[in-house]
Amino acid sequence: MKLITDAQRDAMLANGRRSAAGEEIDPHPVVKLFTPDGAAIWLLTELDPDDPDVAFGLCDLGVGFPELGSVSLAEIAEVRGRLGLAVERDQHFVATKPLSAYAEAAENARYIVA
Q1: Domain residues of the chain, as ranges?
Q2: Which of 66, 22, 25 is closest to 46 using CA atoms?
Q3: What is the pTM of this model?
Q4: CA gap 70, 55 in Å, rounded
Q5: Best exposed site among 19, 81, 104, 112 by fewest CB in 10 Å?
Q6: What does the pLDDT look like over 39-80, one tens digit per residue?
Q7: Quick one: pLDDT band at residue 114, thresholds 50, 70, 90?
């Protein structure tokens, strides 16, 4: 399974171009990635137009410290959970609020509440 579909990549690149142009944006997450045998979750909103391997979003490795930041898609693809399963895309995830709202909820709960 591809971590990000072509349509998601296009939407994330569009968000990245807006952000790179200096526009203040707070988009809804475009994709949710997770470890099926672990607690890691990524809610990603944008890709760097100059380096489309670099995504931005809310990242939680399952240790109680979710944070906003940049992450390499290649590195996410290498992550394995406790049983060795690869990261998957949540095919049923539909964001209902902007990234800042997920970040605020995650800060309060100490994990991503999706």
Answers
A1: 6-109
A2: 25
A3: 0.96
A4: 5
A5: 104
A6: 999 999 999 999 999 999 999 999 999 999 999 999 999 999
A7: confident
